[in-house]
Amino acid sequence: MAYEVLARKWRPQQFDDVVGQQHVTRTLCNAIDAKRIAHAYLLVGPRGIGKTSIARIFAKALNCAKGPTPTPCGVCDSCREITEGSSLDVLEFDAASNTQVDKVRDIIIDHVAYAPARGPYKVYIVDEVHMLSPSSFNALLKTLEEPPAHVKFIFATTEAQKVPTTIISRCQRFDLRRIPMRDIMGHLAKIAKAEGIEASEDALLAIARGAEGGLRDAESALDQLISFRGKTIGEDDVLSVFGLVSRRSLEDLAAAVLRGDLAAIVATVGALDAHGKNLGRVLVELIEHFRNVLIVRSAGGIAALDIAAGQASILEAQAAATTDARLLRMIEVLMESEGRVRYSLSPRTLLETTLMRCARAAATVQTDELIRRLNECKAMLAAGAPEEAPAPAAGPTPVRPPAPPAARPYAPPPPAADDTESGSEEEDSTPSPSVREPAAGAAAAGALAAAWSATVDRIAVAKPRLGAELKATQVVSVDGDRVTLGLARAAADRLTFLEAAAQREPVEKALSRALQRQVSVAFQLVDAAVPAPAAPRRAAPPAPESGAARPPASAPQPPPGEPPADESAKRNARKRLIEDPGVKSIMKSFGGKIVDIHE
């Protein structure tokens, strides 16, 4: 007896034998049970996934001696003839070799009126139907729309977009999908066991990877490996015959890219090229690998991936070592090169440079992260006040020596009569010195006034004219969620421009960002000499002696030998900025150094 290849020997004979297409087989079985059998079906999908096998099983189900039945017996004359391809009632028609309209007329149109020879139905199976000429499709339209009751059409195609819509609209369409890798591995293991072949799990995984979702390709590959190796098949045998890359080599190469190890990348690609591996296929499998890493990191679902059991831990470890933005950038770089590698004169060079770009994308700071860190640094400088320092390590707490007696706050000259009268009304009744905390509005106004010039400069980048007009304004007060800006009376003609909604919106956004809360803005005319709000004070000066006029409220002078409070705060803020880990990372990434800092 002649040898029969595995792809034919293990061709499914029942709907239950079909692998990975349950959505199609279940619909056809239900249609037979409910006696809702359509006159035309269109099966769409890539090669080797079961289109023709399903068509033959469906024909047996319709013409079986026990049928129509979803489980044909396979032993009656009709079932055996259909399996052997000798049935007069089931005609398989290859459209690729019979494209002319005369062939379609002779084989189909002129014979549909004749009754079937044995069974209840005459079934026409047209493979690669998209190869028919436009004239053939047009000649088939009327017969396809209103065939005799005993005629059924089953069309199969790999390119549904080439089939006219007038044909598709007259059929029930079924889209067959690529078979999952785990299903292919299970089916190959079943065949190997029945054939007495010992194949390792890694070998079956390599065959399934190379099949790309086609079960017939996987069965043909297993048949070839049995001829090559005999009864025992290992992963190395599969890799050497089909030029594939082992799963571990692929994972090691991906790990080298993620940690930016250029030497390991060049060495690995050189070894793959020396062993004759298909470098274009390596690129495709790297895209799939990083896609799986991205799914694990962003969607967090291992169960949804079509992977072997041992790959889960590797994917989780690599997902924890990178970010979504970097993975997306690496996949983008790989996909750009995937279309060029097949036409490249030096695939090795293209693959090496592509992986080096991916390694840089994995190691460098991303733009969004850089902008976020810079915005945080700007906010620190704009606030002016130092953040709380972390608790010091265990040890003696340094005690600051008390200020010398001569270090009293400087008393300015007595104010005008109006100010003196106003100040005397607010004077405390107790003669002893008192410590007062500044109001929240005064503190916010002082901090905002110190950073107002820098805020105006940022506004001027997007709106130059608005920035120029705001140069003539100053912070008057911060009252809750309302900020008042003063405009000199001499520039009253600019008030209408500033109060327009188009100008107020960017100003309010800048102020809200500086104060870290939502605020509104109001403008008022003030004298040109109105001072900006003072920075917040920690303590009020001692009360004057009885009968003396109280000096106006102003920031106390620091003790001799100490810098002013606002200068100390700025110095601390700049020091924290220079020592900030994000700034250090940016400087290291770009190889730069800090020359100066401007608010």
Question: What's the SSE blueprint?
Answer:
Elements: H1 6-9, H2 22-33, E1 40-44, H3 51-63, H4 77-84, E2 90-94, H5 101-109, E3 122-127, H6 134-145, E4 151-157, H7 165-168, E5 172-175, H8 181-195, E6 198-199, H9 201-211, H10 215-229, E7 232-233, H11 235-242, H12 247-258, H13 262-274, H14 279-299, H15 312-320, H16 324-341, H17 347-363, H18 367-383, H19 417-425, H20 440-462, H21 464-470, E8 473-479, E9 482-488, H22 495-498, H23 501-515, E10 520-526, H24 565-579, H25 581-590
Parallel strand pairs: 1-4, 1-5, 2-3, 3-4, 6-7, 9-10
Antiparallel strand pairs: 8-9
Helix pairs in contact: 3-4, 5-6, 8-9, 9-10, 9-11, 12-13, 13-17, 14-15, 14-16, 16-17, 20-21, 20-23
